[in-house]
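Objective 1.3, modelling of assemblies. Example input:
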Amino acid sequence: MIKKEMIAMLLAGGQGSRLGVLTSKVAKPAVSFGGKYRIIDFPLSNCINSGIDTVGVLTQYQPLRLNTHIGIGIPWDLDRNIGGVTVLPPYEKSGGSEWYSGTANAIYQNLAYMESYNPEYVLILSGDHIYKMDYEVMLDFHKANNADVTIAVMPVPIEEASRFGVVIADENKKITEFEEKPEKPRSNLASMGIYIFSWKVLRDALIAMKDQSGLDFGKHVIPYCHENGKPIYAYEFNGYWKDVGTLSSYWEANMELIDLVPEFNLYEEYWKIYTKSEILPPQYISSDSKIEKSIIGEGSEIYGVVYNSIIGCGVVIGKGTVVRDSIIMNYSTIGEDCQINKAIIAENVNIANNVVTGEGEEVPNEKAAHIYTDGLVTIGEKSEIPANVKIGKNTVIFGSTEIGDYPDSYLMSGKALIKAGE
Amino acid sequence: MRAIGIILAGGNNHRMKELAQKRAVGAMPIAGSYRSIDFALSNMSNSHIQKVGVFTQYNARSLNEHLSSSKWWDFGRKQGGLFVFTPAVTAEGSFWYRGTADALYQNLSFLKNSHEPYVVIASADCVYKMDFNAVLEYHIAKKADITVVCKEMPQGVSVERFGTVKMNEDSRIEEFEEKPIMAKSNTISCGIYVIRRRQLIEMVERCAEEGRYDFVNDILIRYKNVKRIYGYKIKDYWRNIATVQDYYDTNMDFLKPEIRDYFFKQYPDVYSKVDDLPPAKYNIGAEVKNSLVSSGCIVNGKVENSVIFKESFIGNNCTIKNSIILNDVYIGDNTYIENCIVESRDTIPANSYHKGENGIEIVIERNARYVL
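Predicted structure (tokens):
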């Protein structure tokens, strides 16, 4: 009989709506990060580096790019005879079908998958954080405490704790209370959304709670286990962990990679991050270019100036163009004599010559002031931007735009120019 | 598919000087992220040849490592695949490959057990793109016994290290000289041949009976008046890398936009083994001009007109000029390197000075990474 000690269930179905147009065509875990990676590469690499070779990836929202990225799991060594990676989309059932209505509901609908591996423990992960973590150490902690549930937590500054779900633990790290986004937090230990369940406890809880609508781990399953007296422990993690759920945190986490010796170092031999690498030539840097404090992917051609930026694979940056504090994803092309300041440019974008971004004063975005913040210019995938236009701050552009879309060749700060379906 | 592929990657080459000590010529790194055998392998894959045998002998560790998986060139198939043949002790004998024809003879079962009617033979030390189907069509149209792919070299280029051919107006090869002291023709053999499989088996068997071992001398030259041997002229880029100067020049060719465009952008692609490396990183002080930089590199200094292979580290205040830095080289601060080829996995101590005064200098240093 097949037996796996611990299998991982990776929740990758969410839209991540706070990433705005970046996730209008792809699920958040498939969004590019750090030049050549995608966000899901981090939990998948953590799994294989921790010795977990069986991973179910739950997909729902816009799964195409995620599916092609994962394939049969070759880049992460997850192409296995027994186990490996399995993509688990919602499916039709004889008694009526439903989408995944919540994190725990998604896991509940895949009980059969988990049962087939006969595990002792199930690791629940989400596909939207950047971190390196040895789940085996967390499992050892779980076993040493005879826990039924272990929650990975992270100390955060107490003034920020009110943004998180916090846990209150005794001196043995046994959790006594939970608070979801408390106004006056009594603890600074924030839940990271990473759980280890003893399999029987998880199965019983999911079956008992199955009729709860929008069944969620944080809101329903963990409190249910707690009420039923199951021992729940907090595993404190002190490494680098970054939520990239908002455009500004996504931008910041990318920029942190550029530091001379970054806290999150991709260049270490130990704990490598794997991704699906295409076979690409090296990058070409021309005689007219200047690059400092930047990360640049394979196959890119740089004829301009790049400062403090993250450039993906196959990007072309034209002569006379200056790119500062920006993220440019795979296969985008920037024309000549452009000024690109503090922009997030998604994949396959075409920007013509002499375009200026980040011009003018900061004005809250007219469409979604809470998403397009910090003066960022966000350009969705496959967008086209005509020559000789200026683009203000806190703006968003998505779709094929023409010169007529820019009154006086200027998209004012805070404007949204959306011409592609969301 | 109508043909199987054979890549002859066994040879050593003293003209590569120290560079060949570490690896077979077929495993020489090219253009930042390729190995020279990738070009022959990709051409075969792109010509829909599904079954390829690679013959290796000289120092094949690096090459075998590169060929550890056939999936990069799409040869990981149930039908066909990539086969690597190294000399082995067998019931019949325990010889090294005494020549190219001997290598084929010692593995004759590979030829005999295939069913494809033709064989494409290529060497592993050339950089080119080629559709072998076109050569095969030509071979069939000419009713040739053997077709040799040839290249007309520009006047004034020394061709004495190649095989030179003279063709008649029908492109039939009338004269073939191997490494002539005084070449009579500027047309050289590229080491790429198309031949019917049964014909090849017959010729190789007869060679073995007569105690002859070399494909060029004992088959091509010996049979040129008996068999119909034709030349097929390649018009596009083709370059052999088997001398230090040619190796250097071939790499530098990739700094030209038209060469990059031809190999990297035009269909079909060249495939290579993919390493799990992060993107290249440029820190403060980096100043890179007209250069190729591969993934995994960290650049802190000046780089000009150079090709930097994977995972190299270039320290603060360094100057790298007109040079080739092979894989995984560590260059300490304040180092000056000009007109050099720096061997892979070198550790260049800080404040070093290397300049190739008369031609290209090959820099070989100990790998002292972990005592720095």
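The CA atoms of residues 8 and 144 of chain A lie 20 Å apart.
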